[in-house]
Amino acid sequence: MDPLPPPDRPPRRRGHRPRHSLVDGCLEATAGTVANLSEPRDSSSPPSNLGIGLYLILGLVASLGPISIDTYLPALPEIASSLDASDGMTQMSVTAFLFGLVLGPVVFGPISDAMGRRRLVLGSLVVYSLVSLSIATVGSVEMLISLRLAQAACGGTAIAIARSMFRDLLSGDALARAMSILTVIILGAPIIAPFLGALLLLAWGWRAIFVALGIVGGLIFIAVWYRLPETLPPEDRRPLDLGTAVRGYVTITRSRIAVAYAIAGGAAAAILFAFLAASPFIYISYYGLDERWFGVLFGIGIVGAWIAQIVNIRYVMRIGYRRIVLVGAFCMAALSTVLWWVTRTDLWGLAGVVSMSVVVLSMIHLVTPGTQAGVLDEFPHDLAGSASGFSTFARFTLGAAGSAMVGLFNDGTPEAYGVVVLVSAVVALAAVALAYPSKTTQPA
Question: Among 58, 232, 410, 432, which residue is least crowded by beta carbons within 10 Å?
């Protein structure tokens, strides 16, 4: 079925930003949802406004990554025992999954620019579900690693295309606001997924986790099939060939603003990955925290991230995402300096590391939606898939580097963590500053 063009938007004067309160946004979203639920429409027709239903569906699609990782982490020891594999080989399945999250968007992002978004999301979800069910039957760790790579490539493709669909419908500050709303939904996954994984592990064993992931993928497929429209009309699509895909990425890498925002987002991800790698060692091994309290402190960090996203949703239409990213990056660098000093001098002990980590992580989530929007906003709709793939590549590549640096320079104290965070924050600030001067107003 042929899609209809994206909704018309009223023209805006350069530099003008409408005043838009959180209450107004909620009322608009609620009205859009009621309209969507009460009036049947063609699934190929984009909605006249972005109701809560659309955000929820795309949020579920984008949550596949954290759900697929966090549900099975508690099962790693049992998987190793069941498959008669070493802990190191079993942990390679985590590395393979992260690599697949990068590979999928890079390969299939340009394809979505040529074929449209909806069919590729549906196809990715089908393969994701089938691969998840296949993982439940594996008999060797080598097969587990291979299938986790394929599972992640499908999940990563769906995640990147979900962001591209927002770019098809929105631009500028509205796009950054949509990225924040999407992240608020995604942040629920790290809270729910570990508990769900542990419950399935205790009740039916580790294979049940992948059966559940297959079912989740199937349910999301049904929601996408019935409620998600095509957002890229045929007249806006690019030819489907390797040369066009390569030229698209060349075009993206020649944009100073897009590359700067991608680096800034990747540097922010490096801080997050460094925290994920270092926090169990610092909290439990170094400071002797009881394991039962680790989840509580991790949850506090998620609450801080939620608050940052809500602030962004509330003010981005007034202030502009570029200013929010610049202020957030500056605060992140300043707070990271304090965190480095705390880890170096052991000032305030565990309380100092936890409190400063929470505020730095909050700044990450103030910066990230704007950097994602900044990359996507530089290009027309027919490059949104490629731009999303490029942004994802930078995010996970630099994020993995941050995690590796913590392990490489670990000296038995938290200082390596503090140094990686500080260096990453300075890189993010420099990249944002490089992107900021050339475009300070919204496009007409």
Answer: 410
Spatial distance between the Cα atoms of 377 and 371, rounded to a whole number of angstroms: 10
Distance CA 5, CA 55 (A): 19
Amino acid code (one letter) for 212: A
The runs of H, that is alpha helices, within 320-444 are: 321-345, 349-376, 384-408, 415-435
Residue type, 270: A
Instruction: Dump pLDDT digits (tens) for 25-76.
Output: 433 433 343 333 333 334 444 443 567 888 899 999 989 988 998 888 778 8
The CATH code belonging to domain 249-435 is: 1.20.1250.20
| d(C-alpha 101, C-alpha 299), whole Å | 24
- Helix (DSSP H) and strand (DSSP E) numbers for the chain: 17, 0
Give the separation between CA 15 and CA 6, rounded to whole angstroms. Answer: 23
To the question of pTM greater than 0.90 for the whole model, the response is: no
The SS3 of residue 335 is helix
Confidence at residue 19, expressed as pLDDT on a 0 to 100 scale: 42
- Side-chain-side CA neighbours of residue 392 (13 Å): 32
pLDDT band at 438 (very low <50, low <70, confident <90, very high): low
For 184, the 3-state DSSP assignment is helix
How many other C-beta atoms lie within 10 A of the C-beta of residue 287? 15
Compute φ and ψ for 426, nearest 5 degrees.
-65, -40
- Given phi > 0 = left and psi -120 to 50 = alpha, else beta, which region is 84? left
Among all chains, which residue has been given the structure tokens 């620019």? 113
Q: Do domains 22-237 and 249-435 have the same CATH topology?
A: yes
- The residue behind tokens 């299939």 is 108
Segments making up each domain of the chain, as ranges: 22-237, 249-435
Q: Is CATH 3.40.50.2300 the classification given to domain 22-237? A: no
